[in-house]
């Protein structure tokens, strides 16, 4: 019996036993590619079948990690092997593609299986990779497997540029040596509108580059970086694809005089320099909108594009175009909502002679980042000052629009010089009427909002506060200590429930009051009391000598991560 700390036998040693000849025949002559890595993910053994699949000699694998000892999408495969080694759960039939090798016309599509190797006591010895060429040619099942993988790896976020780059990365070296994703103004990427840019050497600005990938580091084939305008001749195949909406396959690029390349010398020079010989341009269109083109080029790969490549590229492009359109719609919605919200919020807050004030707003890191948070500061009769923070349920344009209507309603009611409790009670009734008026339009119907309304009277040195389902403000007392007074909580707006009540708090000169939205203190992992205590400590630590702007920054910086909801903070200090 071996000592507990004895080194476990390696694959070569296992082949020396009585069953060695049988195992050696199975592992070296069967049509099964096999490699083994130790617990440090160093290759300790590989057979020659794997070399036939990816062209890497056995000696060049030994001692190296998977990303350096495999071909194709080796980095992704290394992540799979590491996960198998860590968890012990095997992965069966993972799609594995390797680029075109010598004598091949197209990349190989293989099935990879990874399993952990354990000793009799269950301790991991390493991880094995088994690769099998289970298909011949590129049939329907091949395309389905690749398109399915494209769906998993393209469109992982709602960011247009990242989605375009994922498309470019996925197709290199799967289909091409160099790929660009160029988008029209239908997908705005910022910058000066293309129609305002002048022509250059007879070329017109038609696209903006959103993604580029190459088998060469840094994509030296590219004339433009991501985000830059792409100029093309009006008679080029790129414009033809835009006009027809159909792909263009040019198995052999014609560089002879008299072609469209005469009007694009910079591109012609790149074609000659890198030996580009085959071109495929695929439109990116979804839901009836043509958003741009994917340009695929072969140079190092000697095989020209064929109809099989065109069909696969079209299917990948169709899947990616849906993700691009989703990102485009999201970006448009988010931009509109943020623009609306920011146009409704005060550009700056001014407490006049009564108070020093400062505000801070942070949009949520959520699917629809613009929400219904708002704040406001305005003067009342008798030198008094009104402070407001509110939060409409939901996100997006509907929430921002509802926020704007509530903010306007508060201003209107404040002109009637109503006490805070009565103002919120009337605001609740107005919210009910607004909801009833919008019942026919579900998108505009936003039920539920919370609000805190405070009125500071510098003559009496008091602050009258009313809450409508909103968390209580933090207030500093006469001794400078901060706390959260026990106030009547009230009910959220928009439900027509019992009227609000108010409380009068003392606020001496230098006294501080902090109004905020629940996004500052709520966290799914902790109770709201934890967040309120975090805010109190941050205000205490900053000290009385800090400016309110510094105090706002100090409080917001205590957020544990990107906020799940909008964060609004309004600080006011009695002069």
Automatic annotation (TrEMBL):
<dbReference type="InterPro" id="IPR000014">
    <property type="entry name" value="PAS"/>
</dbReference>
<dbReference type="InterPro" id="IPR052016">
    <property type="entry name" value="Bact_Sigma-Reg"/>
</dbReference>
<dbReference type="InterPro" id="IPR035965">
    <property type="entry name" value="PAS-like_dom_sf"/>
</dbReference>
<dbReference type="Pfam" id="PF01590">
    <property type="entry name" value="GAF"/>
</dbReference>
<feature type="domain" description="GAF">
    <location>
        <begin position="149"/>
        <end position="334"/>
    </location>
</feature>
<dbReference type="Pfam" id="PF07228">
    <property type="entry name" value="SpoIIE"/>
</dbReference>
<dbReference type="Pfam" id="PF08448">
    <property type="entry name" value="PAS_4"/>
</dbReference>
<feature type="domain" description="PPM-type phosphatase">
    <location>
        <begin position="352"/>
        <end position="574"/>
    </location>
</feature>
<dbReference type="InterPro" id="IPR003018">
    <property type="entry name" value="GAF"/>
</dbReference>
<dbReference type="InterPro" id="IPR029016">
    <property type="entry name" value="GAF-like_dom_sf"/>
</dbReference>
<dbReference type="InterPro" id="IPR013656">
    <property type="entry name" value="PAS_4"/>
</dbReference>
<dbReference type="InterPro" id="IPR036457">
    <property type="entry name" value="PPM-type-like_dom_sf"/>
</dbReference>
<keyword id="KW-0378">Hydrolase</keyword>
<protein>
    <submittedName>
        <fullName>SpoIIE family protein phosphatase</fullName>
    </submittedName>
</protein>
<dbReference type="InterPro" id="IPR001932">
    <property type="entry name" value="PPM-type_phosphatase-like_dom"/>
</dbReference>
